[in-house]
Amino acid sequence: MTGSVPIDPHLLVLFGATGDLSRRKLLPALFRLLRSRGFEDRTHVLGVGNSRRSDEDFRQMAVEAFTEAGFDREEIEEWCLDCLSYQSLSEGFDGLADRIAGLENAHGLTGNRAFYLAIPPEAIEGTLEGLAGSGLDSASGWIRLVIEKPFGVDLESAEELNRSLHARFSEDQIFRIDHYLAKETVQNLLVFRFANPIFESSWNRDRIESVQITVAETIGIEGRAGYFDKAGMVRDIVQNHMLQLLALVAMEPPVRLDPDSIRDEKVKALRSIYPIGPEAVVRGQYTAGEIDGHDVAGYLEEGGVGPGSTTETFVALRVAIDNWRWRGVPFVLRAGKRLPDRLTQIAVTFKQPPVSLFDADGEGQVNGNELYITLQPDEGFDLMFDVKSPGGVSDVRSRSLRFRYADAFGTLPDAYDTLLEDLLIGDQTLFVRGDETEEAWRIIQLILDGDEVHEYPAGSWGPQEASSLVDRWRVRID
Ligand code: BG6
After folding, report:
1. What is the pTM of this model?
2. What is the pLDDT of residue 2?
3. CB burial class (10 A; 0-12, 13-18, 19+) of residue 10?
4. 242 C-alpha to center of ligand 1: Å?
């Protein structure tokens, strides 16, 4: 969260180094970050994987990945030569420990180590055991451990994973990633709410009618059937990204801006949520359809999806928060793949005036105030308010006060640049604490696996049945 704290010299041990996430996101983000801070020489990356390959092979793979990400080949080749190495796990964790000691010696590093686990969930326990068994869980410098989502598959497995982590590492060493938290506009929710009293004083059940959160994607499952068909939208998006957004919208002001004060308030908000029952949920699965003028296959036709799978690619659900601020205000969440637009947006609807003066015949009503917070792709805010159109007094129209990040600040940083920086300076604000993730699983535990899925054609806004959860869906697309 801060750009002025120096980055200590360190070794970044990247498990899953040849995987998609490392190649597409992590390595380019790391280099971008170090270069922008002038700290290119403060890191050495040790890629770790199951396959046998030489340092040279790994560097070659990295150079290709960097070039695809738009970096200058010559500049990057030199950096890869100086700062990247590879170790195969076929030589076991003792082999890894020897290699780490050797690299730290050779590069004059003082024992600061970040272990980044970009690996499938089923490989995590073995890796934790291996790290502890070979003494890699202690060093003369700091030790930090990064866990990518999914963090467990249900409440029980998340509790088990937390127990296993806490047996070897303390909470302040554990960095659980939810990349949504590092999106600039998500971070801005705190500033928006707590630096602008005109909004915060209306941010409650007295003034707010309802809150809707939409996470719409045009993409399908992008070849990830092996993971997604077991997960579905509730695990993939609601448990983490959406409940984090909801917590930031619903939380009380933190006493300070330090990581634990913020996370304490988020956990309190999550604790106030009733477990969601099946009656408050509508699931959907896309069938063949059309997006942006292209025909796309239905979910069941995607390679790797089980025959007759009932995994949901769409979910809408109604959440009730039982506390003084929010009791009675519905929060309705909706997430889907193969929807017509890519859009992550929070729509806050304010209450109507108690008396409608501008409605001569007593029918209809003014439009009222709505706030749309768009987190992507066109990041910004729209505050809708009513104005009189020229002419008759009661011709009331809705117009917007509009702010767009791009107009004010240009391009926003990638979430992974931010997350890596925070990892390397040891700021946990944008990482999920163990109790947060358990609370999020508790909320959705009853609705993890449902058999009833309604079909919706790709390119539509989900199954008709979802409209039973709201008076109307609110999204604002320019
Ligand atoms: C990931 C999910 O966590 O988030 C993907 O596993 C999803 O299924 C992705 O597509 C969405 O992230 P973003 O940043 O593109 O909104």
Report:
1. 0.94
2. 52
3. buried
4. 11
